[in-house]
Amino acid sequence: MATRTFDAVVIGAGPGGYVAAIRLAQLGKKVALVERESLGGVCLNWGCIPSKALIAAANLVEDVRGAAERGILADSPRVDLVRLREFKNGVVKKLVGGVGQLEKGNGVEVIKGTAKFVSPTAIEVSGGEAGAEKARVEAPAFILATGARSIEIPGFAFDGTDVWSAKEAVDLPELPKRLVVVGGGVIGLELGTVYAKLGSEVTFLEALPTILSGIDAEAVRLVQKGLRQRKATVHVNAKAKGFERKGKELVVTFEVDGAAQTVTCDKILVAVGMRPVTDGLGLEAAGVKVGPKGFVEVDAQYRTSAPGVFAIGDLSGPPLLAHKASKEGEIAAEAIAGKKSARDWVAMPAAIFSDPEVAAVGLSEEQARAAGHETMIGKFAFAALGRAIAMDHTEGFVKVVGDKKTGLLLGVTICGPEASDLIAEAALALEMGAYVEDVALTVHAHPTLPEAFMEACKAALGEAIHALNRPERPRKTDGAADQKA
Question: pTM for the complete prediction?
């Protein structure tokens, strides 16, 4: 068995791993990147990117359907699934190819195959290119970035035909007349909404009391309203028990508050969450400890219990977000290179590509109060915003949460058009330690959607211009100004 040595080895080429490998190479390390499937991992191949390509296409279909209201007359749009699938695959291929070029351009060696630790400083890689022998790869430092996979639940084993995971759903094998989505979280809502917009009758079964658990309740109500407008049905407190085939139909059984119900469909999508991928890695041989929920235990630099072994991304715990994984990859790489990098962000933004979109960063109103803050709240509706009205996308709002004593901005929730893009300004404001007044005083270009963030901050101060004000709230105190200085 051939043995190869590197300064560092990254296992897993998703958005955490491929970024870590590039950063290590930039810092002068000889790096290997081991991946058993495709560069880009779940995110690029059957997660973030292909789903957003389908979401964009579904949004376009819906915009065309409603174009007559804006004076644009067009025939009813028809969806060619073959061409739509080709478009989605083209997007994936372009980005995966781009990752390959970046790794090559930075001098990272990509090794195809499955990695397994045989000691704290060595792995064996098998199952690579046809005819390739098992290889031993040694290094003083490893970064584990193996990601997560869809959770399978009893009674709904993934078969790729009747029961889909997200992987099959984004492949768009067909457009079922009736689709049951088990799970009302982010993945289920996003993909279920795509199929609803493309013409499927969609039923959501969520075991918790609400869809999108943990998200601002007002935003959830607007998402539910959007689902109803698209003739989708949502059952909460609904526990999916199993299904049986009757002729060409599938009959799904579920319970709501102990009462059994059924729904008939043509396909079932199970999207109840993701679990970290650790099986087969040989973590025991490396001395890596795994927590009770399956996530690898790490410190602020993503070091595990094993010296020289780091874990990032979905493997290191929630939230399971691609951009979190990328940031963690950079931190781990810099730690290996001897830098003082560590997890120190103020808040991690999250975006849900539902309709309307929902994005949030920092503390919600409830979280802020639970943390002991006396809150100041400002909200501005897109229905009062010129750009949103001109776009004919007026559903939703921007809500800001500040500390009433100091005026410090604590969190932002955006529900509405382009929320996933708009949240970036809020994330920057939090990282920079901005006060609500800072955003309110910042001139925003007109007419634009980001004006809603400024207006919401003005509303929190009792100074809203394009909305009626609540009773006036105190501005930032002298003490807060001194603290800021």
Answer: 0.93
